[in-house]
Amino acid sequence: MDAERTAAQMAEALQTGGLAVGTDRTPKFGEWLRGIWASPSNPIRDGRYVRTVRRTGILNPGTFYELTDGQGKFWQFEAKATVFIEAPNDPIKQRRQGTIRRSVKSVERLI
Description:
Elements: H1 2-16, E1 32-35, E2 46-55, E3 62-68, E4 74-78, E5 82-84, H2 91-110
Antiparallel strand pairs: 1-2, 1-5, 2-3, 3-4
């Protein structure tokens, strides 16, 4: 399933050539992006968006997204070769969901 989705993302990236495949918007700080050409075993395949870098000149011109793993490591992917993804094991999201579950349970006890 993951291989099929990745192949579809690669095909879409080639066709659109747009920023963050599948949308016409730029990412916001902290959103999760995936480099579609990176293999599943690549440790820097997924990362949080930090900033947009526009390169001019002869070598590698274009728009790039700088990503981080949240632990001090930074890297760049070409903007047209990235896709938005759900946060993989995001601790903040997990805490928020846990708080909501606890709140729902406490309200159910009151009812």
